[in-house]
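Worked example
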Amino acid sequence: MRTWIAFTSVALLALTGCASVGPDYVQQDPRAPERYSALETGISTDDPVQAELLNSWWTMFQDPVIDGS
């Protein structure tokens, strides 16, 4: 019986996430940019990829954890 109550509770809780958002909700129309700008030269659709950027792409995040230092 406890399993059934727990399952029903979880199912009802999950279904509440599917409820409507309200009468004043306006759906946004996101626009994608025509082009994405590169953070560094060599990282774009127009430039050939440079080998040194492929070997150290994670350094542009400037995160010591990712850098491993």
About this structure: The helical segments are 2-16, 51-55, 64-67. The mean pLDDT is 78. The CA atoms of residues 9 and 46 lie 53 Å apart.
